[in-house]
Amino acid sequence: MAIKMPELPEVQTVVNGLKPMIIGKKIIRIKPIWHKVLENFNESIFENNPQAHEIIDVTRRAKFIILHFTGKILAIHLRMTGKLFVTKKNNIPIHCTVVVFFESGERLVFEDTRKFGRMYLYTDFLNIDSRHGIEPLDEVFTETWLIEGLKNRKRNIKSLLLDQSFISGLGNIYVDESLWYAGIHPFSKSNMIPLQNIINLREGIILILQKAINARGTTIIDFTFLNGQSGNYSKELKVFGKNKKPCDKCSDIIFKTRVAGRGTYVCASCQEIFV
């Protein structure tokens, strides 16, 4: 099975775990082990000024973990294999790309086998917001918004849902699960999907994401959250990763195909193609 990038529930799980561990902590140093991990800033910014780098909140935007300071934010993207954990140990893991040192003596370690993960320093959310669309768990993600959004675009539905500038945070796993829930084949055109199926799609996206967050995400090959713990939502998956297995709804066999360049799981009996 291919490595899967953490999606909204996995990132939110990390945020939920980090909050009680690092809010109030003061950063005294950032040490990059892999030179490319600090995307747009130099580690010297965090030296000798712990009062200016007290973490006042930890949130999520799209697939970014956001550490808030007064007047700036540190945005962390895990990409495919990134993991964060807090420790007091001095040893550095073999795949560590950066260590954040706190005044308390603890450390936030960014471990990343493939070294795709990055940190970005911004003064506000403008850069992130300009590249990312609506949050699917926000109140503004209404039936009306989604109906208009799909009807005004003539795009493949899976490709559109994966587009982070349209809806942020969704990835391959939860798009497949949401389309199955709504009875929509991923080959469908967005503007051809009936009203009720769009309503069901919105309902499915919200329900599935909330359940996945409650289960601490889906563990697919590489994702674990703080200190090596695993998510449990993989036990609840209905279609993703179920190639040649019976569908929970109709017992017909699920098959794997490719849509938008991604491995895609479909029940042809339950998911209708709208073109």
Descriptive notes:
There is one protein chain. The protein has 275 residues and is α+β, with helices and mostly antiparallel strands. The protein folds into two domains: 8-129, MutM-like, N-terminal (N-terminal domain of MutM-like DNA repair proteins), CATH 3.20.190; 143-266, Helicase, Ruva Protein, domain 3 (Orthogonal Bundle), CATH 1.10.8. It is built from six helices and ten strands, in the order H-E-E-E-E-E-E-E-E-H-H-H-H-H-E-E. It has helices spanning 8-22, 126-129, 143-151, 157-162, 172-182, 195-214; strands spanning 27-32, 57-61, 64-69, 72-77, 82-87, 96-102, 107-112, 118-122, 255-259, 262-266. The strands form three sheets. The chain has a four-stranded antiparallel beta sheet with strand order 1-6-7-5, with helices on one face. Strands 2-3-4-8 form a four-stranded antiparallel beta sheet. The two termini are 30 Å apart. The mean pLDDT is 93.
Low-confidence residue ranges: none
Q: Based on DSSP secondary structure assignment, what is the total number of beta strands?
A: 10
How many helices does DSSP assign? 6
Largest sheet: 4 strands, antiparallel
CATH topology term of the largest domain: Helicase, Ruva Protein, domain 3
Tell me, what's the shape? elongated
Q: Write down the Rg.
A: 20 Å
In total, how many domains does the architecture comprise?
2
Task: Give the overall pLDDT as a whole number.
Answer: 93
Strand/helix succession: HEEEEEEEEHHHHHEE
Keywords:
single chain, 275 residues, alpha+beta, N-terminal domain of MutM-like DNA repair proteins, Helicase, Ruva Protein, domain 3, 2 domains, 4-stranded antiparallel sheet, 6 helices, 10 strands
